[in-house]
Amino acid sequence: MSMNLKTLRLLPLAAFVVSLSAMASEDNAALIKQGEYVARAADCGACHRTVEQGGALFSGGYAIDSPMGRIISSNITPSKTHGIGDYTEQQLADALRKGVNAKGQHLYPAMPYTAYQGMSDADIHALYVYLQHGVKPVDKAVPATELAFPFNVRALMFGWNLLFLDASSATWPADADEPLKRGQYLVDTLGHCGACHTPRNAFMAEDSSRYLAGAALGGWVAPNITSDQASGIGSWSNDELAGFLKNGHVTNKAQAAGGMAEAVENSLRFLSDGDLHAMASYLKTVPAIASTHPVLNAPRTVVPVDMTTLEVGQGDQASLANASETDGARLYNAACASCHGRDGQGTADAFYPSLSQNTALTGGQPNNLVMAIIEGISRKGADLEVNMPALGGDLNDQQIAAIANYSLQRFGNPALNVSEQEVAQLRRGGDVPLLVKAMPYVLWLGGVLGVAMVCWLVLARVKRKRERKILEKKNALNRRFHSR
């Protein structure tokens, strides 16, 4: 009887403990969900992925082609042997905000800690809980990053961080709209849009004086997304901007490709409509910076093709296999017309987009047109999946230049022209930054100065020895003289 009474007395306590446990479990689940959203908004999965398709989430190994060489993304699963399973929350915060891992090693800015330094404590906490408890651990090692000297000296990043890791954040008036603040946080911090859309200075840091004014990256061009009416997004509506971020395309305006297509597929399509509109609202407030490249302000009026002027077999795919074929019209009709039409107007539903109302052709640089031909387009937006085949393996540089120039002259910006040499350069990843170009000469000059310094030290030592011997002889003579 007494045992039953004791049991009855303990029942409320047990129920309370179970209730607390359930509440903690619900709180943890909510944090994991919030952390997953933060990881999506920060686009962690775009880099910390496997090389193979369908690999384990966040297990790393993906190679990021930077101007300094290939940087291999790390395993950020909660694996205690190969991931971040032993990280404390503070160590994760240091990696995100300071670019320093748990071993005290400096990270390269390919991991955009220069943007993530503005992350809120709440978002870092949620991300930590998600990565530790919402992600499956993968005990898989990834190859080490191997860059050429001196870029492989991680300690040099300490000096770079002193110069370019700016901990200041945007200040808003007290009455500023919350959506604008949220938009700025998503654009500048989590979304790290400036990592691609802001030009770099001579030391490969973002040039804040040209914030979001567009930059070349891996052959592609991340376009001007300031509020400039002609070369930026000033003429876009908020709905168009938000729709582009979510779906990767806006009819008769633009389609996401390259790195932007990856951002849409891995990150932006998962964000809430409220967040996407907040980003759009903020981007519309960014001060306008006009492009120095000629932009076509109005779509071209394309004259319909006279079918009687086309040669027999002009649209034959055999043209692509003929390396001697360099006529842009023939190559376009063989490779592009079946989707985009002979008149370049695409399809009525815009699934195959118009070329005469397309920023890849009407913008101030031909890079994205050429890169789309070389690499194709693969994009999964919130509304549909798009795959444009890559022709870089089928066509040589001269043929790609011919298609690009025909398309520009007929449908796009006639002020642009692409050479065979420019196509070859874009295949290699675009222009090499000044820092990388100059480094061999800097190292050579440093070596020469080093040898000169060693020679000077040796000669100075020899000279001192000689002077010391002369002085000793003089002193000896003086002693003899005075001893007499």
Automatic annotation (TrEMBL):
The keyword Lyase does not apply. The keyword Thylakoid does not apply. GO terms for cellular component: plasma membrane. It is found in: Cell membrane. InterPro entries: Cyt_c-like_dom, Cyt_c-like_dom_sf, Cytochrome_c-type_DH, Membr-bd_ADH_cyt_c. Heme c 1 binds at C44, C47, H48. Pfam families: Cytochrom_C, Cytochrome_CBB3. Residues 1-24 form the signal peptide. Heme c 2 binds at C193, C196, H197. Residues 30-135, 178-287, 323-411 form the Cytochrome c domain. Keywords: Cell membrane, Heme, Iron, Membrane, Metal-binding, Repeat, Signal, Transmembrane, Transmembrane helix. SUPFAM superfamilies: Cytochrome c. This is Cytochrome C. The chain crosses the membrane at residues 441-459. Heme c 3 binds at C336, C339, H340. Its cofactor is heme c. Binds 3 heme c groups covalently per subunit. GO terms for molecular function: electron transfer activity; heme binding; iron ion binding; oxidoreductase activity, acting on CH-OH group of donors.
